[in-house]
Amino acid sequence: MAVPITEEKAIAGQGSGESRRASLARRIFAAMAAIAVASCVLVSVASAFVYQKSVVEDAQAGLRRECELVTSTLNATNGDNDSEVQALLDLDFSDVRVTLVSKTGKVLYDSLVEASTLPNHKSRPEIAQALKSGTGESERDSSTVGYLSVYHAERLKSGDVIRLSEDRDGILRVIGNELWPMIGIVVIVVAAAWIASRRFSALLVKPILAIDTSSGNAASPYQELDPLVSHLNEQQAELQKRMNDIVDADAMRQEFTANVTHELKTPIAAISGASELLRDGLVRPEDVQEFASRIYGDAQRLSSLVSDILTLSKLDESERVGDQALFGEPSQVDLYTVAQDVADRLEEKAAKANVSLRVQGASVTISGYPRLLDEMIRNLCDNAIRYNRTGGSVHVFVLPVNGHPTIRVSDTGVGISPQDQAKVFERFYRVDKSRSRETGGTGLGLAIVKHAAALHKATIDLDSELGRGTTITVTFPAESK
Fold first, then answer.
1. Residue 472: which pLDDT band, with cuts at 50, 70 and 90?
2. Averaged over 451-477, what is the pLDDT?
């Protein structure tokens, strides 16, 4: 018993078989989670840089103000080094590091380290800039891991340089401080992405699962699915067409079988009845020849019917399997010669019906199957004679028309009504059933013409008017010449 696919399974891809296939929910989750995590990281790093830049700017501004105050204080001294150092010792700078550098770069005082242990500072960027222009600023990584040292220097009246510096968190420490909060945010974002992806994929899949292509005109819920839904609609239409063809073929087969059975029973019953009367001696001697003639006629009709059934069956089989090898190899056939040969064989029948039969035209050669072409022309001519009037005529024209080999059979017979013209090529369809019975028609002649023409990729045109006659034209493709 078939198990319906639930929406949950369709979304999540549950089950041993489905777990090996891609899951829409998982793909959406992976995409959303990756985008969310990347966004969190990028925003955090960008924020850290912005924060650190802001901190450095604030530190520079603070050091600048303090340095200006210290510079004013030192400029008020005698200007000698000892006075400047003493003034610095009297000031409280808290966490700010103070360094006094002579114009030669020698460190005269440092609030954190013994001045004599420090190297010459003349090459330091902020010192060199202050000596040159009066003020200097710089930032560089501190010897303490994760910190950034911010420097501001001012040149004194004495030519010495006073420098203030302060350590602030570097970018790595800023990021490190935000690491755990960022991890927490990422976890929350990933969990939200998982929930959102489940719901989002459910919303996406629901209209897809609602697509019903059984009608052949399903609508796509998304533009991106238009090609797929269109293809499914085409496949459904093709499947429906094939199903209809199968049903029609089955109905036709049943009808054909019933018609064949009926058509075979009629001559068999006649033969059986006449022969039974002869066997039982119930026929007068002078009527024996008439009964024998009836038996012979019905036997001939039965033979023709069987022959036409076999030909039509082979044509059906050839069309079904797409193989024309059932009729042998195609060869070059002169349609005019075939038509003339058919006319010669039907001359006696035409004379008995008091119908003139004439072939006109020119030699036209095509690649085809001689026996089928012969039978096609014979059936067209035979019908034209059978349904003609006394003293009528049948003209067979064989000629090329616009480069296409063409056979045209015209008669001056009873004609075919418009409502019957679409049906005359059906099996066992007779316009005049009584006349067909009398003249021995099987009801399969035009059906054979139709399938033989299709086998040669030819087209059939019918032009008829009641009481004025019928013209049937068979046109072969130009490449068949």
1. very high
2. 90
C-alpha to C-alpha distance for 430 and 166, rounded to whole angstroms: 115
What angle, 0 to 180 degrees and rounded to 10, lies between the N-to-C axes of helices 226-279 and 288-321? 160
Q: Residue 146 and residue 168: Cα distance in Å, rounded?
A: 9
Q: Taking the mean position of all CA atoms in its chain, how far away is CA 139?
A: 62
Res 336 pLDDT > 80: yes
Indicate the pLDDT class of residue 29, thresholds 50, 70 and 90.
confident
This prediction has a pTM of 0.46
Q: Which CATH number fits domain 78-172: 1.10.1040.10, 1.25.40.10, 3.40.50.150, 3.30.450.20?
A: 3.30.450.20
Q: Quick one: which of 15, 57, 219, 278 has its CA closest to 5?
A: 15
CATH fourth-level superfamily of 329-480: Histidine kinase-like ATPase, C-terminal domain (3.30.565.10)
- The segment(s) of the chain belonging to CATH 3.30.450.20 are 78-172
Q: Using the structure block, give the residue that is written with the tokens 């139709």.
A: 450
Residue 162, classed as helix, strand or coil, is strand
Cβ atoms of 429 and 449 within 8 Å: the answer is no
Give residue-wise pLDDT tens across range 64-82: 888 888 888 888 887 788 8
Is the CATH number of domain 214-327 3.40.630.30?
Answer: no
Residue from 181, 447, 145 nearest 319 by CA: 447
Angle at 313 between CA 388 and CA 305, to 5 degrees: 40
136 has a pLDDT exceeding 80: yes
Please state, in angstroms and rounded to a whole number, the distance separating the CA atoms of residues 366 and 474. Answer: 13
The structure tokens 């000031």 sit at 91
Task: State the pLDDT confidence band at 440, using cuts at 50, 70 and 90.
Answer: low
Rounded CA separation 259/312 (Å): 14
In contact, 23 and 153? CB cutoff 8 Å: no
Which of 95 and 396 is assigned the larger pLDDT? 396
Helix (H, G, I), strand (E, B) or coil at 333: strand
- φ/ψ of 28, rounded to 5, equals -65, -40
Query: What's the confidence (pLDDT) of residue 144?
Result: 59
